[in-house]
Specification:
It is found in: Membrane. This is ABC transporter permease. This protein has 270 residues and is an all-alpha fold. The protein has one domain. 74% of the residues lie in helices and 0% in strands. The protein is built from eleven helices and no strands. It is globular and about 70 Å long.
Amino acid sequence: MTAALAYEWTRIRTIRSTYWLSAIAVVFGVGLSFLVSMGLHFSLVSANPPPASELKGVDQGIATQFAVFGVPYFVAYILAMVAVFGWGHEYRHGMIRATLTALGSRTAAWVAKFLVVGAWVVVVALVTALASLLVGWLWLHGDGVPVFTADVWRAVARTLLYTLLFAWLASAFTALVRNQTAALVLLFLWPLAVENVVSVVFSLVPALSEHAEVTRFLPFNAGTRIISQVPGADGAFGSPLSVGAAVVVFGGLTAVAMALSLTLFHRRDA
């Protein structure tokens, strides 16, 4: 297992896309928080500052690029591409044979890939959140806007959990299809288009509208609830889902995909 982890750690550090994608995630996340914090600062020092009621949760928004308010957490999407390439490059360039020859154990190779890519994306997401909070504090600490609060740290923890599950789901799907192009397309198409279309259909079609609440169980609809704060989400599997229920739905799908990918990884030819 130690050899597999060392092998995978070396591999992920020698792929240029790992650094490019990580840098893009940090720059995008911190840049967005910087711009919003700057705009908010100038609004607060203007002649007509926004009321305090409109600032509720802004600290969590800065830390999560406003995913806490239901906006897609695009940092996780970018980092999930690192996970896709973790398997995709192996199959695209035929390196999976060399990997299995060097390691011998398929289980060790599989576990190492998920552990290393999981650790990488969590660290990058954490750096993004902390740097975002720092720029938020630099702009807003003199305006009476608290930034480093207990609610913020809870939001950051939920964000890291969502990012990890998203990356593992992307890894598992890529291992299943063994095609990084297909995995990349579905990575963006399913959560940003397919699930939204399904939700719209349930809302507009009279025969389905009374069952529209079932769309809360769509995997990425549920996944966003891990981060976002929605009033009235107190019941476990009610509408909207609670954070715990969202973890069960999104995490359950991830676990099933990972288990299936491991099974097929053992049964298929390299």
